[in-house]
Amino acid sequence: MTSPTNLLIRRARIILPNGELMIGDVLTRDRVIVEVAPQISTAEPIIEIDAARLTLLPGVIDPQVHFREPGLEYKENLFTASCACAKGGVTSFLEMPNTRPLTTTQQTLDDKLQRASQKCLVNYGFFIGATSENLPDILSAHPTPGIKIFMGSMHGQLLVDTEVALEAIFSQGTRLIAVHAENQERINQRRQEFAGITDPAIHSQIQDNQAALEATQLALKLSQKYQRRLHILHMSTAEEAELLRQHKPSWVTCEVTPQHLLMNTSAYAKIGTLAQMNPPLRSPHDNEVLWQALRDGIIDFIATDHAPHTLEEKAQPYPKSPSGMPGVETSLALMLTAAKEGKCTIAQVVNWMSTAVAKAYGIRNKGEIKPGYDADLVLVDLDNYRPVLRQELFSKCGWSPFEGWNLTGWAHTTIVGGQIVYQNGKLFTEVRGQALQFENS
């Protein structure tokens, strides 16, 4: 399956672009969907997939991941991460610049693109990272979905935490700016205040709701001043959701992670530092407000912030334990399970995990099941439940914060560019994705 295959998916429950469900067939040819109909007949040589009792969705586009290559491949690499994507129904990803070396120049961006072309089973794109000194690079680097700014939770060159430095970036160019919004000055102050406490639950107090809100307020202020396209990454607090509910310009988007919807500070008592991430888990009240903001369209879509560390690293006592958790293998099943529980609809999950992401980042011909669109698809089983088991994970780190959760909507077959990359537990590792192109860049 190293070259595009003509596929005929038969008798699937198809989620159409208007959100309606149709039992029918989908024909793909040369990486593209060519026909969607109640019944398709063709005389051409073709691979048929009997999808009776399975639901066909557009492939997930995960717009925020950390895949650790180059420089930190002992945690994860582009091959293992893309295998995990394929198993999770993720057919495209956007990866972040905090690798070693940092992705802050055209040269380091090109290096990642070259590595991905050789290793990735799914489609890929890479953010360019902002420093206080690389303005020419972040304005000209290509192709990239946008500029990533760490306003907090970072150290070294990638930390851009003064208003002067931030304004220099917001005031020049038109490229999308994606922010990790936490106030580093407040975090530093609270870190001193709570020094010596090794209970990982203190993490949510050190990097508290106020630290997130203050940074989001600043990013929003600069975005409004310069009419600059802004995306707020992994929004985690009720206060941020309410701020945007009151005033969200048309050029601003934001995302939320499954863990900020489905987990809260009670997780520390159960799984300890495996629940530690940036921004931290919040309260059950924050969960509820974020869910409502997502359903109301205040929050635009879902991202995982897949950021794996080894179990040995995570076993260190807080605050030596690193922040971050894997997510690409479980995100779709988590959200479809939530849909089955009545928290949302399957059509909403499709929008949040595919359609809206493609629209926000200007990724042409992805995120919908219709003729002319790329054949990036996933067949999921919504009739059966299976637990998250550590021994079944493809991510190199080998653990999940959702271990033991009983989920439905697991991927049965994942298709990238008309090629079957995962089916019934088996990976087809010779398949390669393609570099994503961005209309807005």
Total beta-strand segments: 18
Assign a percent range to the helix content. Answer: 25-40%
Helix-strand makeup class: alpha/beta
Average pLDDT: 97
Write the layout of secondary structure elements.
Elements: E1 7-15, E2 21-29, E3 32-37, E4 47-50, E5 55-58, E6 60-65, H1 78-88, E7 90-95, H2 106-119, E8 123-126, E9 128-129, H3 135-140, E10 147-150, H4 163-170, E11 177-180, H5 184-193, H6 203-206, H7 209-226, E12 230-232, H8 238-246, E13 252-256, H9 258-262, H10 267-271, H11 284-295, E14 301-302, H12 311-314, H13 331-340, H14 346-361, E15 377-387, E16 406-416, E17 419-423, E18 426-427
Helix pairs in contact: 4-7, 7-8, 8-11
Question: Could you describe the 3D structure shown?
Answer:
There is one protein chain. The protein has about 450 residues and is of the alpha/beta class. The strands form three sheets. Strands 1, 2, 3, 4, 5, 15, 16, 17 and 18 form a nine-stranded mixed sheet that branches. A six-stranded parallel sheet has the order 9-10-11-12-13-14. Strands 6-7-8 form a three-stranded parallel sheet. The model has no long low-confidence stretch (mean pLDDT about 95). The longest helix has 18 residues, at about 210-225. The protein contains 14 helices and 18 strands. The chain has helices at about 80-90, 105-120, 135-140, 165-170, 185-195, 205, 210-225, 240-245, 260, 265-270, 285-295, 310-315, 330-340, 345-360; strands at about 5-15, 20-30, 30-35, 45-50, 55-60, 60-65, 90-95, 125, 130, 145-150, 175-180, 230, 250-255, 300, 375-385, 405-415, 420-425, 425. A hairpin with a 5-residue loop joins strand 1 (about 5-15) and strand 2 (about 20-30). The chain is globular and about 70 Å long.
